[in-house]
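Quick one: examine the sequence and fold tokens given here and explain what the tokens say about the fold. Here goes:
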Amino acid sequence: MQILTPQAWDAFIEDHPEAHILQTRPWGELKSAFGWKPRYVQADDLGALILFWRLPLGMSIAYIPRGPAGVGRWVDFWPQVDELCRKERAVFLRVEPDIWQPVPEDFAQDHLPGFIETAQTVQPPRTIIIDLQQDEEEILMAMKSKTRYNIRLAERKDVVVNPSDDVDTFHRMMIHTGKRDAFGVHSREYYQRAYDIFAPSGGCVLLIAEYDGQPLAGLMAFAHGDTAWYFYGASTDEERNRMPTYLLQWEAIRWAKSTGCKFYDLWGVPDYPEHALEGTFLDRTDGLWGVYRFKRGFGGQLRRTIGAWDRVYQPLIYKLYQLWSGRHQSPTGT
């Protein structure tokens, strides 16, 4: 197994454009500015960005987000990864493969031997993906009628959406949204660094919806290969009757399509089967349920990855970490 330089990893990813954005060198650069140690490894035509988070007493957690990338025998790859993880004194390695369900019954046996499935996912396993390989009118017609109505209502009510570099305003809206909807928010520096790393190459856009010069909502979307992702979104409580978030999301979809992406990932809904989501969303607003109610209106297909899998190196400390992480927010996450 080779430990690659960031430049060599860029070349590897260029040969594997299907790799997830969370496996790219810019993402490793972003995470390295906020406590993570990125390592880029390759064995034959299979590789991974592995992130290490330091724990007390010189130990660490190893994490592969939406990887590995490339093609090859996973069963031969893991023993080589184990060597690096042990050198870094990892308690465990968590892997969230970029593999969609359904998979063959023997997938885990053939690809993840020695791993245990865990419910402690880092990235949202279930999402909605919009197919952009249609014209704009077809994408609109695939949406719920109420969503189409709200998009057009926002336009009629003079909401405008424009690209922006005003991360300060976006972060203020994120703080407000986090308090209102009870979810964690990154620091202003985190969003600024993400924007500064990805935007110059066209891999990120910050969109702000305004009415009469007043910011009402914002989002940051990212693009790599044939997919764009809606990672961060915020809104104020002002002028909500003008439906700014609907027009904002539509303009993000249009941006994704303009970059040549084939898919737009809305990134995260409650982790329940479709029949449970559809049967419950009208009655619940806690957690991601309100988010699902909004996102489902844009059409798309409900998909789920195979989730998170752990390879444990220090079983006792791993159990203690599981107990701790069940009561505290993990340092990982998009």
About this structure: The chain has a mean pLDDT of 95. The chain is about 35% helix and 25% strand. The first strand starts at residue 2 and ends at 4.
